[in-house]
Specification:
It contains 19 helices and no strands. With 493 residues, it is mainly α. It folds into two domains: 49 residues; 411 residues, MFS general substrate transporter like domains (Growth Hormone, Chain: A, Up-down Bundle). It starts with a helix and ends in a 14-residue tail after the last helix.
Amino acid sequence: MDNDAKRIFQLTRKEMGKTPADDDSKSALRKDDDEDAQRTTTTTRRITTTADVARTPTPSKKLTSHALFPFAIISISYILFTITDGAVRMVVVLHAYSKSFTAMELAIVFTLYELMGVVTNLIAGIMGARWGIRMTLLIGLALQIGGLGMLFAWTDEWSKTKAMVYVTAAQALCGIAKDLTKLGGKTVTKLVTPDEKQNRLFVLVSGLTGLKNSFKGVGYFLGAWLLTISYETSLIVMIALIAIAFPFGFFGLQKDLGRVGKENVTLKKALTQNRNTKYLSLSRVFLFGSRDLWFEIPLPYFLRDSVGGVGWPRSAVGAMLAGYIIVYGQLQSWTPQMVLKPLKQSPPNKRVAVLWNILLVLGPLFLGACISTDVFDTNSSENHENVQIVLVVLGIALFAFLFAVNSAIHSYLVVKYAEGNKLSMSVGYYYMANAFGRLFGTILSGAIYTAFGGDDVKTGFAVCFWASSASVLLSAYFEMFLEDGEMSTTPAV
């Protein structure tokens, strides 16, 4: 390449300094010029191609297409993992209920699962930036297999205390695994989306998140159904699903995918996020807390309780929770159409986020009001019991619709607000807040349901919805501090 450059320089100098006397040499130089031009064109084309890939911040169509392969591998692995995540949650909940665990005791079992999510999301962001998405994905899949394998040892001979300690430890591994896997599923969306295509990014994030949640609903149903066969069978099937995803991630992903320089990856930088990311994360805490205040533990316990609740069998409870998750996931996928077209908002901003968050409070208010009245009097006629079921389903469907829109808007905004060189750390920080919301929602739901539902489970269930309403309003409050337009890179105080 140096020789080519020298020839070009010499020829250019000759051309600039030529006189009429030089015309006689034109034919002699033309042949040399043509040969040099051919070599220079070939070299320049090769240099330009490399430079475009390395330096261009906005992916071209060719680069975007090239990124579709890792996107497909990570997305499929993410979905397979999600099925097992929903299934193991349903298996543990229903198996614990059959062993007379109280709602508070079950909440304690899931404490480390959610707490590990708080820690892991932050660490996962650093790991993803240092070691790449491939490493975090593979570690997550391996830990999920380990956590599922531990559950084989849970036997009827164990005391409740021993079972709680052991299952809590197994769930801790599953909690770490979930958030390591989730990191790749979220960050990979930006690989295939140019920076100027924000609407496309909104659609892609919403679609992937919605698809993931729909398959998590499939996992809820699968776990409840497999449990009717046997406890061990359910675990074997879940491990097999993870085993399918593992080799694709190992052989199909590049080691440096999503990696940045080690000098730019520190805990301090991971915690130092821009103003919008911090306030959106605070809002996320209370958004997901509002759901888990009634969904994960109180709802299945209320549906299973034959004394003060509905008295459904395991399969019906699993189908109910699965239906919620599937509908919720599909609604997330449709969020761009529901938000962009009616409101002519392209893409969602602060006002849209606050509006949909305030509307969300209608769901828990409706359910809390219904349960607090004599509509849920279980001593009434069979027709009255059918009314109970219809109202529960309608209320949950309303919450699912509004929650799905809010969650999709949040998932888009965090990717939008994230700084390019801190994408994985910003996403990890945001989902750390997500996990903290699930943690406080789960623990508080178990405490409320047990404390207020001792003699009347519907009272405890109703209080869970009142607490959920308050959590929704807090989520909307923190969204009001978001800044539209150009982001402020100054950390929030």
